[in-house]
Write a structure and sequence with these properties.
homodimer; 705 residues; mainly alpha; 4-stranded antiparallel sheet; two-stranded antiparallel ribbon; 21 helices; 4% strand
Chain lengths: 705, 705
């Protein structure tokens, strides 16, 4: 029997205490299980149940007869045609063409899970009717995986014309790999620019920034056309029109209600952003003061604490947000999986991007320009006045100050050491951490960690196994189904072992992979002017990334259920948004940090040049020199005026850059459209096909329309 | 014979002198004339020639047999279907449905004029092959016109559901009238707001501005959906896909070459804009100084001179620009009439809008804020120093100054009289002139002037007739064709008189009418915060306008050749651009002119409030008082700083408003799309039709796709 799908069925979800409950659950499980098998065989599928990884866990192996598959194909092709999707060899009549494994799996999966009114069986995991059905998944094709791994260790991993990934894992995964491939190639350009500017130019170079922003706009617009071409080649263009409805969808629901509900998540996101902001500011203050200025016992260990705090607290916050986002997206009651996914993706992406970039943004636009003022205020608050009152002596070590020596004992009240944290170098360190350290950690988490975790789980279950059999699952003994008994020979045993192992793997979700790449794109586009080697690091990472992703899919995750798609969807919006943001951040960074002589920022290797921020700093310092600590932010201080002017000008520059972005984007889009879309082979072919169908139709009517 | 079209054929274009030339021309005309008749009858049309309004001028009456029309219908329906246009009753088979006069005329016109490779006869006026064919036009349907005029004098002129205009004049004209109707209804809203703010609020009210900008965005986005719905109802959606090629088009031409040529007109437009700017500034200076300060002999007459100068010079400039634009658009080598028209329209619109709004923009953003400074500079230059050196005495009459009394004799060197010109009142006067005086003049030009002109022409030709017969057209006597002789009875004579009269009328072009409305929209959206009664005036004008336009079409112009169209095309872009500009100008106007107390601009009826401009003026004056005339624009003057800050802040406000515009627009577009497009009757019907066609197709294939 050729197994198409495996349905994971778990008789009881949590350990129940009372005997009555256990009994009820067992009865319910038995009823649902037999209903499942009945539904499947009623639908013309062959279903066989076997024991899963533990008692009460069953794996139902489903296979679809070829006859039924043929019917499904015809039904899909008709609905595709009626909805205007490209249906290529429509004139071939009744002949069937060779069916790719992914198409077969997709059709069968849609048949099992879609609701009866869409012509399916309605067995949807998570629906109230089938609450014991955990998941429906397909099994890996071992021989294909081996071949594939062999192929990409020696040469490149994927190209669209080579349709192997699509035939095996479906259009969604294939689109991800071709995006990854395209993006990696596109990175070569900024990597080359980055290297040349790193070695022969300066950082915060306006030319580098302009080139980077142009590249990011160009890439996004290029991909916008490219994904349309790919979807034409895949024949999935417009696939959202034939998408099946979600089982959870409530049809009595107006569009504006859904959109109001979507709006409702805006304040939630803002709230979380505020939390994150507070957390990061807290960590920053802690870092700047406690670790730098505290010289008491144990300061070596305390200097690691900000990182530790960040690593502990932020993922917690992300996890809580993720739960919220899921809840809200459920509540929005989307009709289709694609719109559900894109709503959830957008929410999650916004927060992921905040986590990724907020630190840099705060450093660049708050701490470095205004940190000194902030720090003095905190210093005042911390030490009740043991702060230098004369700005010109600010850099002198004040530990031997006569005031409050008992407090200064453990504190290195030296503003200069704090200042070292507050120069543009801080930005570079952060960029290095984000683009090098983080990526290495990520790769390990993707590839190495699952091995470790599985080892640990295996060790644990081994230890827990005897107790498991006697302890909490004693009651479950009663829930032993007929199918739980082992039957068959060696081959079947091996097959069952494989199935059980794969059932224990996590489901593959393309979200994480896209997220990683898009966030990386953001580092390159938004912040690489701080450290022009960032694109190079991204390129190096991605050369490995495509392989590690492929490895992950084949080894560490379940085989993805094929999904038809014609776009990378919300990620494209995210990329476009990031390229817009890139125009803003780059212009503001260059405006603030680029050393210039008078108002020219083109030639940058002068001795006497200073950046706008340095100028304002000088103002601040000179004001402080004249009027003391209160003068810095005081009403009459020149520093405030200069700071305000700096902010207004930076805002003006950013807004102007935003307009520039819009203009450049529309030009790029137009050029890409003309160059790549109009007159491309795919489009021509599609038009020929459509015309042919219509001509056949006209002939059929004898020419008399 | 039912005449479909009249071809106006003129044997010689200009009076030629030498006998040889005359002979050659006569021979050429004879050859081309017989070729024309041959081509027409070869194409299956009936053609009869008659004498035109003068010797050498012939009118060829063309009529198309019903059989040929049937063939043309079938051919068009097939090509429509193949190109994906909505073809409604496609299942009716060979039956023909009642054909509207406009469809018949359109088909015959396309057949006569389109190039042979598009299946036409290729008789295109203006092409080198047919240089003597002046024009091809259709004759008015007198009885329809009378009925129609009667209908709209008693009730409203047009609605889409009432398809009379479409059946008579084609989709293009019908779309204009339904645009006019929609726009006029939409104007009721700002008119009401305007009245309430004029009587109960103040001008430059931020609330009024916000409401106006919101209205303009809303209207544009509403129309964007509305015109799509109309085009679905007309069945013309996507009509550009089946458009016939222009005869002048050179197919060996790449897209980028055309677009570079389109870019080439940018500097030309800029050059003309600069000329216009110089002209207007010149007139302004002339107005401000010569008419106000000159008190010598004849100053009563001289005070009219700026208006006279404007009326004489600006139309000249517009005419020259129009020629340039036509030349450039020809040179761009467009494949289709629609793209040719839209390119020409955009160019012309830009310049028309400049002419319309530049005066106001200069007044609002240059003369009123900085005019005083400018004027003093000019004064200095004019009188070599007979200017008040102490700003506090500036307003004193200096005619009795001891310096240069001989020059001041004829000049009222009183800055205060110039100042009166330079207050926001100037803006109100300008708005009144543009929205009231101009519109009255326009209506007269459209309705009354043609009568006058025709009277004059008739009088002239009567006078010139005898000399015409004997003088220059002596040579033409030889070019008397057989067809020039008068034949037939009284009915034919009347018919011929009508045809000759209509041949003398100008061709109708929808451009002028759209242009007038769009420019008016601009006044309402961009500038009505200056004078909130402007929308009321626009509304009043438009109630008359729809009738005067209809009258113009039926009486003063030739019957328009029906054209299929699915959009108001470049005008929609123009409207969108104006609504964007409205966001900018409104925010800048409110920022500059709204009286405020401290930084709040919400409550505006305080005694001590002053607008940002007044504040800067005060700065300027006080600076001038301290440092004299040179101090105003001097390096160290406080005035310069304040002016610069004002400019920077105004720019910041405008840029922020532009972003606000983009956000509001995308929200509005989304809402309109959901509310009006999705689920609308037209869209559903279209989808039903398409599905039906496809289902018929599937049935034909026996279900086996």
């Amino acid at each position: 029997m050729d197994v198409d799908f495996v349905i994971s069925f778990r008789a009881s979800k949590k350990t129940s205490i009372s005997k009555k409950q256990t009994k009820d659950e067992a009865r319910k499980a038995e009823i649902q299980y037999s209903r499942l098998l009945e539904t499947l065989s009623y639908g013309g599928l062959k279903a066989v149940g076997r024991r899963g990884d533990s008692l009460g866990h069953l794996l139902v192996f489903v296979s679809c007869p070829d006859k039924l598959v043929q019917n499904l194909i015809i039904r899909e092709r008709q609905s595709d045609f009626l909805s205007g999707l490209p249906v290529t060899p429509i004139t071939n009549g009744n002949e069937s063409m060779p069916l790719a494994p992914s198409d077969r799996l997709r059709l069968v999966h849609a048949y099992i899970t879609s609701i009866p009114s869409d012509g399916g069986l309605g067995v949807t995991p998570g629906s109230p009717e089938w609450d014991l059905v955990e998941s429906i998944f397909c099994l890996h094709d071992r021989s294909f995986n081996e071949q594939w791994i062999h192929a990409w260790t020696t040469s490149k991993i994927a190209s669209v014309s080579d349709g192997r990934i699509r035939d095996q894992f479906g259009e969604s995964v294939a689109l991800y790999f071709s995006f990854l491939d395209s993006y990696t190639r596109a990175l070569v350009l900024p990597a080359m620019i980055g290297i040349s500017f790193y070695f022969f130019g300066t950082s915060y170079s306006p030319i580098y920034s302009i080139l980077t922003v142009l590249w990011s706009i160009g890439f996004v617009e290029w991909w916008r056309v490219r994904e349309r071409l790919i979807s034409l080649r895949f024949g999935t263009r417009g696939s959202f029109r034939v998408e099946k409805r979600r089982a959870q969808y409530d049809p009595k629901f107006s569009w504006w209600k859904r959109e109001l509900r979507m709006l409702a998540s805006v304040p939630v996101i803002l709230g979380f952003a505020a939390l994150l902001f507070a957390l990061m500011t807290g960590i920053f203050v802690f870092e700047a003061f406690v670790t730098q200025l505290y010289t008491g016992p144990g300061h070596k260990f305390i200097s690691f604490s900000p990182t530790v705090l960040f690593v502990i607290l932020v993922p917690r916050l992300v996890a809580v947000f993720q739960l919220c986002a899921q809840y809200f997206t459920q509540w929005e009651n989307h009709a289709h999986h694609s719109s559900y996914n894109s709503s959830l993706t957008l929410k999650t992406f916004i927060f992921t991007a905040l986590v990724a970039y907020l630190g840099l943004a705060l450093s660049a636009f708050v701490y470095v320009p205004f940190g000194e003022g902030l720090m003095r205020i905190v210093q005042v608050w911390l030490f009740n006045g043991i702060v230098p009152h004369t700005g010109s002596q600010m850099n002198a070590n004040l530990t031997d100050s006569s005031q409050a020596p008992q407090k200064a004992e453990f504190w290195d009240v030296d503003a200069s050491s704090a200042e070292t944290k507050l120069n543009p170098g801080r930005l570079k360190d952060q960029m290095f951490a984000y683009t090098v350290t983080n990526q290495i950690v990520n790769t390990f988490v993707e590839i190495g960690l699952p091995y470790v975790l599985r080892k640990i789980t295996a060790f644990r279950t081994k230890k827990a196994d005897p107790s498991n059999g006697t302890g909490s699952s004693l009651g479950k003994k009663k829930v032993v189904f007929e199918d739980e008994k082992e039957k068959g020979g060696q081959a079947e045993k091996e097959f069952l072992d494989q199935a059980r192992a794969e059932a224990a793997l996590p489901e593959y979700d393309v979200f994480g992979d896209y997220s990683e790449m898009v966030i990386q794109f953001g580092y390159v586009a938004l912040w690489s002017t701080i450290w022009p080697l960032a694109p190079v690091m991204a390129l190096l990472n991605n050369l490995l990334e495509s392989r590690s992703d492929a490895f992950k899919i084949t080894v560490h995750e379940r085989r993805p259920t094929p999904v038809r798609t014609d776009t990378i969807g919300p990620w494209l919006e995210a990329l476009a948004f990031l390229s817009w943001l890139a125009a803003l951040t780059n212009s503001a960074l260059v405006y603030l940090f680029c050393p210039r002589e008078h108002s020219q920022c083109t030639s940058s290797d002068f001795g006497g040049s200073e950046s706008a921020i340095e100028r304002v700093h000088r103002h601040l310092v000179s004001t402080a020199g004249k009027e003391g600590i209160d003068g810095i932010w005081g009403e009459h201080g020149k520093g405030l005026g200069a700071t305000k002017e700096l902010l207004v000008m930076a805002l003006l520059v950013a807004l102007a850059a935003s307009h520039g972005y819009l203009i450049v984007r529309s030009i790029m889009r137009h050029i890409m459209e003309r160059l790549l879309w109009k007159g491309s082979e795919e489009v021509k072919e599609r038009e020929r096909d459509e015309r042919m169908v219509k001509e056949v139709f006209l002939k059929g009517l004898g020419g008399g329309v």
